[in-house]
Amino acid sequence: MENRRSTSNFSKAVNSERFSKPSDNTKPDVPNNRQFVREFLKKEDKFNSKNNKTTSEAKRKKAPQNSKLQKYKKFQSKSNFNPRGKVAKSSENIVKPKIVSDLQITDGKHIGKYLQGSNSPKTRQTSRHLRESLFKILFKTVRGRRFLDLCAGIGTIGIEAVSRGSVVSTFVDRSAKMCSLIRKNLEICQIKKGHGEVFEMEAVPFLKQMSIRNRRWDVIYFDPASGANFEEVLEYFKRGMAIEKSGILVVEHHSEMFSPESLGVLKRWRVVTQGENSLSFYEKKR
């Protein structure tokens, strides 16, 4: 009993001290408002008193622009598929096929495809090296333009033009066998009829018909076969027939054969020679 009384008296004394009124000299322990806010911000770090916005929003605005790119990189897929499900193409991963034969397409969307050739000794195939040098010069002029392959043979030059972005290639040859080979080669390269047209005709009557219809081409490639009316064809080109105002005429000939500096309206601006064959480039005089 005595112990209980002593503990109760002790608790009363403590409570009396806690709730006793302060003297005049002493001040109550009231927390400072500024100090309280600082302590609250240190603990929570959720409220910013300066702009009344959360610190997370303020950090987002002050964050550098590079941080956005880093966020997007996190969500980029590492697979080779784009959003539509197709395999994404990259120039590093594409392996170009080796060009070994003169019957192969040297560049463009049909690169590496083999064409059917002819066994007859009369047909003369343009070498792949000469074709590469030809289209390095005509790369910009061929894209999106109309191309005429006169005395086409198996159609290698015209198909090279379509492979590099030509809108339409017109093939002209007098031999029925050559025209059938051209059609087969167009099927091999999956070139539609709208992008390739074949005419089984001689060069001179073809140019006569096209002049009546007022048809013109941006680039004309003339590789005369043996026994062709070479001079008659050049007479049409001298008048500027079948060639657009800013068009180009390319004549393939033997390197020992002389090519004139001008052909009527046309003026020669370049000659390329490789071995026994040469290419003479003509354009309309301005």
CATH architecture of the domain at 128-284: 3-Layer(aba) Sandwich
**Main β-sheet: number of strands, strand sense, barrel status?**
8 strands, mixed
Instruction: Give the rounded overall mean pLDDT.
Output: 78
* C-alpha end-to-end distance: 130 Å
| Main sheet: strand order | 3-2-1-4-5-8-7-6
How many helices in DSSP terms? 10
H and E order? HHHHHHEHEHEHEHEEEE
User: What is the CATH class designation of the domain at 128-284?
Assistant: Alpha Beta
> In what range is the share of β-strand residues?
15-25%
The unreliable regions are: 74-92
Q: Care to count the β-strands? A: 8
Shape: globular
Helix content bin: 25-40%
CATH topology annotation of the domain at 128-284: Rossmann fold
The helix-and-strand class reads alpha/beta
Task: Supply the CATH superfamily name of the domain at 128-284.
Answer: Vaccinia Virus protein VP39
* Radius of gyration of CA atoms, rounded to a whole number: 43 Å
Write the layout of secondary structure elements.
Blueprint: H1 2-18, H2 33-44, H3 55-62, H4 66-75, H5 128-137, H6 139-142, E1 146-150, H7 156-163, E2 168-173, H8 176-188, E3 196-200, H9 203-213, E4 217-222, H10 230-238, E5 243-254, E6 262-263, E7 266-274, E8 277-284
Parallel strand pairs: 1-2, 1-4, 2-3, 4-5
Antiparallel strand pairs: 5-8, 6-7, 7-8
